[in-house]
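Record type: monomer structure entry
Structure origin: computed from sequence
Chain ID: A
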Amino acid sequence: MLTVIEVKKIAHLARLGIEEENVAAYATDLNGILSLMIQINELDTTNIKPMAHPMDQVQRLRVDVVTEENQSDYFQSVAQQTENGLYLVPKVLD
């Protein structure tokens, strides 16, 4: 169970600004979440198959077809500087 002091420390480490009057409510909420996680952890999932999505759905895929015209020459013609198909930009870090 998290104490008010621990919630303040967590908030400080996470750089969260929690007003003093809300710290107790955060502690209650976090303890509720942790209690739920403890309950879930106690469940026997031995014969449960892992799933990527709670709804057993199949991803609809489409054929990967190029639908746009290659306009790289046009875009590079209006760029300030290019070299070998790359855009040259000013140096921002040393």
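Annotation 1: The first helix runs from residue 4 to 13.
Annotation 2: The two ends are 48 Å apart (CA to CA).
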